[in-house]
Amino acid sequence: MKIWPSFLVLLCCLSLSAQENILNAHGKYLTLGLGIPIHTVRDQAHTSLAYRGSGLRIFTNFEEIRDNGVFRLSFAIENATLKAKVKPRKDTQGKAQLNDLSFSVGYYVSVGGDASSDNRQYIGGAFNVQGNNRSYPLPTNNTESLLFQSSLSIGALDRRRIGNSATWVASTRVELPIVAALYRPSYIGVGPFLHIPEVKGKDFFKSCSIVTLNKFFKITVGIDADNQVRDWRSNRIAYDWSLLYTPLPKTKPMIATVGSLGYGFRVLL
Which residues of 225-251 are buried (b: 16+ CB within 10 A; e: fewer)? Predict the structure, then answer.
């Protein structure tokens, strides 16, 4: 795979260009990492079965820690192979493929009177974009699933030392969208007609629904543990979990969870 040499070269370049400053204090940080996500999804618009499986996650985070707040930007790509959960256990002779792309940019403002940079709490919000595609095996006659959402969320961030350690810092964040533009067609394919009209960008936006918590619910929890190994870098253990539920389209709800454990290489810019 061509991605691995490029990934290693990028890590080397970051190591050479990093400056020697105190980590886990104010500054700009970049993290590159790999993880293993475990997905569980039941999408009744396409199948009555629940699917579960694991895959690969590639993620990058940019963080700027300031006196009065934290700016955070994240991007992740996931690919997973899912298998139907059937009882009693039997071979369903088919697997589903999942591809997910997510982007988030947010800002959190410091609250409380604790002035320690390694023990502070923040509140804020983020703008999120997610694209999710699943390809189901036969015998379903509706094999392609697509979900696109763009949302505004509120959130909280806690950043503190782990115990009395001088080298370990933990960051915990919780996010919840309050309004979202949701696109989730119940069928993707060619309809039973001869004339196929030209599809334009405005047709996509017209098909999006503006929804709130009762139509689109997604809670995300992230825990990052950073271990400083040099003045300019640290090792990050990252765990992310999310629960997504939407009753749209009507009578065909979808519920999905994903938990991902990964390692990140974090440097001070």
Answer: bbbbeeebbbebbbebbbebebbbeee
